[in-house]
Specification:
alpha+beta, 3-stranded antiparallel beta sheet, 5 strands, about 45% helix, elongated
Length: about 100
Amino acid sequence: MSAKDIDIQLQGGAKFVMYMYCVSILVMSFKRYSDIYFIMPGEKATKHGTQFTLISVFLGWWGIPWGPIWTITALSTNLKGGKDVTAQIAAQLKPQA
């Protein structure tokens, strides 16, 4: 897809999102973000985030103290459709003057 095609899709309501997930091992917790996903207009953003939500549900809680905190944050972020990074990506796609 060319930059022009992406721009047309963005004007139609497409967006770029990342999903958060948390993995914990006893006293260590890791908060990470997924790759960037391009969500087409009318597509549900939560469908791509399901795998990251499940990772957090099963593997995120176990590290004290950050595991539960980051897991709840990841679940909240993902169930709202992920972290919208459209503005940052669109700015990088614009031709430099």
